[in-house]
Specification:
Helices cover about 55% and strands about 10% of the residues. It is mostly helical and about 220 residues long. A hairpin with a 3-residue loop joins strand 3 and strand 4. The strands form two sheets. Strands 1-2 form a two-stranded antiparallel sheet. A two-stranded antiparallel ribbon has the order 3-4.
Length: about 220
């Protein structure tokens, strides 16, 4: 890794993994589930720093001091809402990932655009409805992130941070793009097992599956 390259947070690494370093576009498999992934990655980062744990399906803050990194500080603040009773035990993990996903993803994308790692392109759907599309920017950290992921993969994801990233990648559905082909199915299965063992990644996956079920139900009702 280039010594001058910025240190990326887990949410930023997950976002960059979700872009194809060749086409420069977001992997279609990431879709809207990337927002859940960013929220889950923030939880995983806080967990690795010894700031949160999960107990009974809820996130409990164990170190209330706000992190220096703004995105993680925002995530921490939303986990520390005052209350009584059930709230004292912290928010439910799955519900928090859903509620926090959109604003955390937007903050993460904005930071990556400012750093030049991504660029934003104004578009119009059917020539009328405006929307924004992100692509790899002039400071190509995507290839570097993919390269670090490959090194970690070849090492069996021995590092806790690498395991968390692999679990999150599986949770948002991009393991097939990162480890393509029938011959690499065991690697995808290994990432899936990491996801099942990681409470933050499981919460991401549950939200993704809920959206899939809702979409299927809507389609069947027509």
């Amino acid at each position: 890794m280039n010594a001058d390259a910025p240190r990326l947070t887990l949410p930023e690494e997950l976002v960059l993994l979700s872009f194809d370093p060749v086409s420069k576009r977001k992997l279609w498999r990431a879709g809207s589930s990337l927002a859940y992934g960013v929220a889950g990655a923030a939880l995983a980062e806080l967990r690795l720093a010894g700031r949160v744990v999960e107990e009974g399906g809820r996130v409990r803050v164990t170190n209330p001091l706000p992190p220096d990194e703004p995105l993680l500080a925002t995530a921490m603040a939303s986990l520390q809402r005052p209350g009584k009773g059930a709230r004292d035990r912290g928010p439910r993990t799955v519900a928090w990932v859903r509620s926090a996903s959109r604003h955390l993803e937007e903050a993460c994308l904005t930071r990556l655009v400012k750093s030049g790692a991504l660029r934003v392109e104004p578009r119009r759907f059917l020539g009328v409805v405006p929307y924004r599309r992100h692509s790899v920017g002039p400071v190509d950290l995507t290839a570097q992130t993919r390269g670090r992921f490959e090194l970690a993969r070849r090492g069996g994801f021995a590092d806790p941070r690498a395991r968390a990233l692999a679990a999150l990648a599986s949770a948002i559905g991009i393991s097939g793009a990162l480890c393509p082909g029938w011959g690499r199915r065991q690697e995808r299965q290994a990432m899936h097992r990491l996801m099942r063992a990681d409470w933050a990644a499981r919460a991401v996956h549950k939200n993704r599956m809920r959206d899939s079920a809702d979409a299927g139900g809507s389609g069947g009702g027509g």
